[in-house]
Write a structure and sequence with these properties.
Two copies of one chain form a homodimer. By secondary structure, chain A is of the alpha/beta class. Chain A has a single domain, classed as TIM Barrel. Chain A has twelve helices and ten strands. The radius of gyration of chain A is 18 Å and the shape is globular.
């Protein structure tokens, strides 16, 4: 897929991992597998399917091994997993993921409370993981969370984000995903952040991961695209939430990102109605309607600009 | 309020008119008045409170006279009303609105179906209305609807929008509000549209009125701001809907626009918690939770970037 300027743009679908991680209801394994299989057939090329953290910490993803083992592996789709440490990587490797991801918070306090380690300890843990993953030939993503605001520390210094992103790259990850974990960023902060990070990390190695808690996520995505970012994390139907603002919304919605990209001539390769149907597969289980605006449009009246009408009838 | 560049930005709150017009439930008059009175005390400076169309057409606003007569008139707040014709203006003038607005669709078919007149007939009707409104010393806004897409005609030519905007100005309106009525526009279309319209109408006379049907509205708002537009129409809690996509969302949410603007140093003067509380006054009547993401954040954990924490506790 290409932007108007010609640079290819990738979408990384994170609903099965980041979305479900922040949902209260546990999706049964068979439903989850059927759902991921449906997502695999929408044109999406990168899907993060689970996380190998301790199941007592994230019970929603306790079925990580089974999911990775039993989902369909569609050609040209990369199935990634999150791992917290070497033990998680070893569990994952048994079932041959296509990519792995590590995570750390820019906020020291958030890292301590969320991961139970200091930033230094976290980086130290990554070294053997990265070594083993590289030996296995796996692409490695480094997630940075709380890149704009932290519920404990408040506003985060973009310079610190840039330093940590560079450090992650020097350790050996292939891309860094910058996460506005509590969704407080606006275009102004995103621009300032990317100005700083792109001085230390090539913009082609930067992904953005925006939460939509304050409704800013899609505007932030556009800002990132304008800055040359071409990897966008999103969650079908906007699944997920925010543990720090109960009831709040989750990640930016994949369908809204697809719509935005198609509108600027970026051919995503994603079939929007198929994506929406896939998103709907878990809606009943999660016990609430989707937060995404686009998902509320009746399928029979969906249309796609400019000039392409998917299935528009009057 | 000023953008980072210093240009003042106005928000026009349209929930009591455009929002309610597209909601199924009828809000009782006394609740509506209390709600508008609350909105008047949030720092908003322009509120569109009702419409003097025929009550059989828009029963939600059948109480137009009473509302305009009985709401509090807070100093420095301008209370505007929509009028379809001379008769509507005369009804409105009895109760001294601060501003009036006329409306027309760029799509001939939409104008016929929605208003029951051709574009030429509509413009002809405006002449005496504008004359009388000017004589009464009232600022006049001209709404253009279906500026990007039409459910009947499909994609709309931005050149036609520019011509009609210019014609409206030549007839004597003081500003034109460009409405993406079915919410299909993305930043790419908004940019192209504003490039054209701003060649015919000074950008300071252009307002944008984005519906959030496809989740693009706030990204579109940012694009408009980047193009120099400084009048943004919005609806508290994202109230409203889309008659062409039942169940779909409404206007861009005022609170999310405020948040976006504050994030870029634009001092809106709006008290965000007060705005959210005002929005909540009609929630129960409308029988559904707000579509706005920001409105889902528990009030006690709302924060405002950058660095200003309204009421943030951990």
């Amino acid at each position: 897929m290409n932007t108007g300027s010609g640079a290819p743009v990738s979408i990384v679908e994170v609903a099965p991992r980041d979305g479900l991680q922040n949902e209260h209801h546990i999706v049964p394994t068979d439903v989850k597998i059927a759902w991921i299989n449906a997502l695999s057939r929408t044109g999406l090329r990168r899907i993060e399917v689970t996380s190998f953290v301790r199941s007592d910490r994230v019970p929603q993803l306790a079925d990580a091994e089974i999911v990775l083992a039993e989902i369909d592996r569609i050609p040209n789709v990369a199935y990634g997993v999150l791992v917290p440490n070497l033990q998680g990587l070893e569990r994952a490797l048994v079932h041959r993921p296509d990519a792995i991801a590590l995570f750390i918070a820019v906020s020291e306090t958030f890292n301590q409370r969320n991961i139970g380690a200091s930033i230094e300890e976290s980086f130290a843990r990554f070294t053997p993981v990265i070594a083993d993953a590289r030996q296995a030939g796996l692409p490695i993503r480094g997630y940075l969370s709380t890149v704009i605001g932290c519920p404990y520390e408040g506003v985060i210094d973009p310079g610190k984000v840039a330093e940590m992103a560079e450090r992650f790259m020097m350790l050996g990850v292939d891309e860094v995903s910058l996460g506005d974990t509590i969704g407080v960023g606006t275009p102004a902060q995103v621009k300032r952040l990317l100005d700083q990070v792109s001085q230390r990390v090539p913009v082609t190695r930067i992904a953005v991961h925006f939460h939509d808690t304050y409704g800013q996520a899609l505007a932030n995505v556009q800002t990132a695209l304008d800055q040359g970012v071409c990897i966008i994390d999103s969650s079908v139907h906007g699944l997920g939430g925010c543990p720090f603002a109960p009831g709040a919304s989750g990640n930016v919605a994949t369908e809204e990102v697809v719509y935005l990209l198609e509108g600027q001539g970026c051919r995503t390769g994603v079939d929007l109605p198929a994506l929406l149907r896939a998103g709907g597969l878990v809606g009943r289980i999660l016990g609430r309607p989707p937060v995404s605006r686009l998902a509320r449009v009746p399928l029979e009246s969906i249309w796609l600009n400019p000039g392409k009408i998917w299935n528009h009838r009057r």
